[in-house]
Amino acid sequence: MNSKVFINTPYITLGQMLKRENIVNTGGQVKGFLIENKVTVNGVREVRRGRKLYPGDVINIESVGTFTIIS
User: Fold this and answer.
1) Could you tell me which residues come within 8 angstroms of residue 30 by beta carbon, excluding any fewer than 6 positions away?
2) What is the pLDDT of residues 31-51, one digit of tens each?
């Protein structure tokens, strides 16, 4: 699955993106989700929920899919 995430701001945080795409239900679940699941941003493993995502960034979540940030 390759989904596009449209934003109208300069960036979105990884935690906000996970909530917006209904991967987690609450912000409190984000930290645990990132520790338990392999999440990469532009091919680099990421565990920070505050990681800023900019247009063109590609997020891959193992067993969920791939997301591309679009402005």
Assistant:
1) 14, 15, 18, 19, 24, 49
2) 999 999 999 999 999 999 999
